[in-house]
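Blinded run. Sample ID left blank on purpose so nobody reads anything into the name before looking at the predicted structure. Input follows.
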Amino acid sequence: MARLTETPYLAFPLRITEAGAVACGRAEHVRQQIEQILFTQPGERVFRPEFGAGVRGLVFEPNSSPLWELTRKRLQAAVAEALAGEADPKSIEIAVEGEGEQLLITIRYALTRLGIAQTLNVRLGG
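Blinded prediction complete.
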């Protein structure tokens, strides 16, 4: 079990230093995968046009419950697909809500092989 947490993964975004490519641990790698989903626009990746949630564009939408529910459903599907094998699909919980002009996204998941629960909070806008 300890070996899984010590295995180095390439950090995102890719950075090269004098010592070589920057690496990170497994839990950080999964968090970075989720950030890629959040901030990649659908259609941005040539060979995976359906990839991404494009949340940056949501700051121009009316901040209301229909937007929150649509975003939550889109993220639920995208995160479950991207984390297949990493996180238990039943453990993935996504909450989207608004606070003034800000969009608040909370993603909770459990890394199956490491046996740890993680939470990622993202605040967009204003």
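Unblinding after everyone has recorded impressions. The radius of gyration is 16 Å.
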